[in-house]
Amino acid sequence: QVQLVESGGGLVQPGGSLRLSCAASGIIFSIYDMRWYRQAPGKQRELVAGITREGITNYSDSVKGRFTISRDNARMAVYLQMNSLTPEDTAVYLCRAAQQLGIGMTPRTYWGQGTQVTVSS
Questions:
Q1: In Å, how far are 20, 75, 96, 103 from 69, measured between CA atoms?
Q2: Reduced 3-state DSSP string for 46-100
Q3: Element at 35 (helix H, strand E)
Q4: Percent of the chain residues topping a pLDDT of 90
Q5: Residue 36: which region, alpha, beta or left (left: phi > 0; alpha: psi -120 to 50)?
Q6: Residues 20-36: pLDDT tens digits?
Q7: Which residues on neighbouring strands pair with residue 20, listed in sequence order?
Q8: Phi, psi (5° rounding) for residue 89?
Q9: SS3 of residue 7 by DSSP
């Protein structure tokens, strides 16, 4: 059974930091591209950051320079270090694992349940 379990969310003041973790089980983690998304109330789900199985990273413009995504294949985990948080970062943060199956094929994907991040004074 595949599981992605996020942790590390919570309440933090503006300017503060949090480190999110996503622990995977039931998959060959090293062959999956990993992404962090977030969803705020009333808003569409937004891609925050991604890291490929080769370790190539990308970020949305809204978090570039403040957030860092990393992965530890031995621990089967992906992390999101979030610094200089603002109230606009408040959302449920979810991780997604995607296995590329081939050109033109829909990737095999799995989602976690999410962890709440609230940035407020």
A1: 9, 15, 13, 26
A2: EEEEEECCCCCEEECCCCCCCEEEEEECCCCEEEEEECCCCHHHCEEEEEEEEEC
A3: strand 33-39
A4: 92
A5: beta
A6: 999 999 999 999 999 99
A7: 80
A8: -85, -5
A9: strand
Q: For 76-103, what is each residue's pLDDT tens digit?
A: 999 999 999 999 999 999 999 999 888 8
**How far is Cα 109 from Cα 62, in angstroms, rounded to an integer?**
24
* pLDDT band at 55; cut points 50, 70, 90: very high
Q: Which amino acid is at 19?
A: R
The single residue listed with the structure tokens 């990393």 is: 70
Identify the three-state secondary structure at position 16: coil
Contact 27/97 with Cβ under 8 angstroms? yes
Tokens encoding 113: 């349940």
66: exposed, middle or buried (Cβ count in 10 Å: 0-12, 13-18, 19+): middle
